Amino acid sequence: MNETKKRIIEAAIALFTEKGFHGTSIQEIAAHAGISKGAFYLHFKSKDALQVEIFRYYTSLIQEEMVNAIDPGLSPEENFRRQTEIQIAQMQRHTDFIVMVIREQAYSLNPELIEFIEELRISQSEWYRDQLTSIYGESIRPFVHDIYVITEGIKSHYMQHFISNPQALNPEGLTELIFRMTAQAAEGFLGGTLRPLLDEETLRTLFSGFFPEEGESEELTGVIDAMRTILYGQALPRATVQYLLSTLDFLEVQAQAGPGADLTAIEGALAIFRPYPEFGDCLRLLEEKFGADMHN
């Protein structure tokens, strides 16, 4: 990754953490990174694309360290412990990223990002499968998904509790706790005292129907892009343009949300454009396609 791209990512993390995803403009990210807005678009086609790259960047940092931590001379249990501690230490070092994720939860409205998150979940689940089968054998396979959810849930919630003071967290202590809880869960499932709640079929259907039909989403995005073109042609104050662009970014995210779209928020966003007659035709199309009635 080149230095400019890295600066953009780090600037965006800082601003998203402070102001939120929708409250931060591309111009602000570019200024914080010390580049022009045009230079931003040389590296990222949109703010949504940047958001995906942020997740890829931080994930790659963790995965690289985990791979380097594997020692063939150690037992499977010890390698599992070492890699778990690295995950926790990385999260401890990058609490700004975690704050952004907790604050926004915006990935649920970004199709490209939710696809990446799902790939990451599968990859992490496969890592648990490999670790657990190396420790307990093939008999643990039917329970891997449940153990993954239990273990990751413990890790995530502890990290959230320490988010305001990450240095107070003891990575070795949390690693030991996770290691022991993972072992207890595995023994409970293998011993028949616990029954799994997740299987492959259940996991395959978790995200079905989450997004709208592709044609509908693309049509909404096309109207929003037309509004951006109209906006760039208006003689409006710079602050107003930035505010309207941020509102269009929000509408585009909602266009991808399908059943999860917030119609009340959409109505409010569309109302912002009502004082500008140039957007009239586009607004009518969006009202119709979103199903939002601003006049009630």
Automatic annotation (TrEMBL):
Keywords from the named record: DNA-binding
Keyword rRNA-binding among UniProt keywords: no
Family matches, as PROSITE patterns: HTH_TETR_1, HTH_TETR_2
Listed InterPro entries: DNA-bd_HTH_TetR-type_CS, Homeodomain-like_sf, HTH-type_Tx_Regulator, HTH_TetR
DNA-binding region: 25-44
Keyword DNA-binding (UniProt): yes
PANTHER family: ACREF/ENVCD OPERON REPRESSOR-RELATED, TRANSCRIPTIONAL REGULATOR, TETR FAMILY
Stretches assigned to the HTH tetR-type domain: 2-62
Protein name per UniProt: TetR/AcrR family transcriptional regulator
